[in-house]
Amino acid sequence: MSNVKDSQWPLWEVFVQASPGIPHKHVGSVHAPDKQMALQNSRDLYTRRSEGISIWVVPAEAIVASNPEDSGMFFEPSNDKVYRHPTFYVMPEGSKNI
Amino acid sequence: MENEKQLEQFEAKINADSKIEPKDWMPEDYRKHLIRQISQHAHSEVIGMQPEGNWITRAPSLRAKLILLAKIQDEGGHGLYLYSSCETLGISREELIEQLHNGKAKYSTIFNYPVLTWADVGAIGWLVDGAAIVNQISLQRTSYGPYSRAMVRICKEESFHQRQGYEIMGKLALGTPEQKEMAQDALNRLWWPTLMMFGPHDADSAHTGKAMKWKIKRETNDELRQRFIDKTVQQAEIIGLTMPDPELKWNAEKNKYDHGKIDWEEFKRVVNGDGPCNKKRMDNHLKAHDEGAWVREAATAYAAKQVKEQVVA
Hints:
Helix content of chain A is 17%, strand content 20%. Chain A contains 2 helices and 3 strands. Chain A has a 3-stranded antiparallel β-sheet, covered by helices on one side. Residues 1-5 of chain A have low confidence and may be disordered. Chain B is mainly α. Chain B contains 13 helices and 2 strands, in the order ααααααααααββααα. In chain B, strands 1-2 form a two-stranded antiparallel ribbon. In chain B, a hairpin with a 4-residue loop joins β1 (249-251) and β2. In chain B, α7 packs antiparallel against α8. The longest helix of chain B is centred in the middle third of the chain and has 29 residues, at 145-173.
């Protein structure tokens, strides 16, 4: 069997926005030969029950992800900056609305 | 050494009920078990479209036909969610389909039984989807993230499947004597094969140990089977049907139903290819796959042409 004949097409990651104003959320993936079909296949697969008002499809190979094994080191710089959180600051006794 | 440390971290994550994600380190056995279980699950969804598909042109009303079409489309969708989740483990869709075709991967034995009457369509929704729900609700808590997310999605859709089946059974059971007999006959034939869907008893199940330890499965075959029986008996009673198990009775002490012996010889025969419809199901899948080849080729060629035109322009 030739490769072309049995190709299940490139992989696309699918993101759906459920209602206006909220972020698109990853819901899964589809195989499709081009972006138009990726969009249509995603609609048929992931929004059969009014789950969304907008869909993004992204070629899976275009996604760059951080490596879980390095995550300690990678995210370390944010761990020692407690002054970035509002709870770090001491407010004068009795002050309101702040 | 490195491996031991990684295994330790992996098991610590499992013990803390944290999810394992595709890029996380995992033992080879964990990956293999997941590929076997998720692919079997995906193939079952897709092969499961066939028994009901036979009834689309014979549905007794337009309402029934629309419902059946929607249900079968859902089953195809469930197959796709599961294939996607399985592919995150590093196996391609082509390999998964190839393993189905060469018999290395299995699918649920229940789909090798024929669907002889309209009541069988009802019984499939009520019993087969009912059993699947019990299993899948439990699997929502599986330790592998993509599998868990697919299960959550599937469970949301599955409830309609069971209710439409139970509605068909209820209508037939409360209809003419012939209709009631048809419903009872469907229950008689499909009850035992449905119980087999949960797999061998825990004592005889080769894969249960590690799957439970690594939280791929959260409850054992027998626990899930018992939950299904306990839920379903009352549903049969309410529509006036009789369970085809003379030994089925309430055990007040254990707070569950005792049931008769399952014919595991029959189960083994059907798993190993000797069920009433094994050959037909596989032949159909192969035929659809081969006859769809030109569509895949044409779409690939069209996509290549689009890219070329873009480059020229």
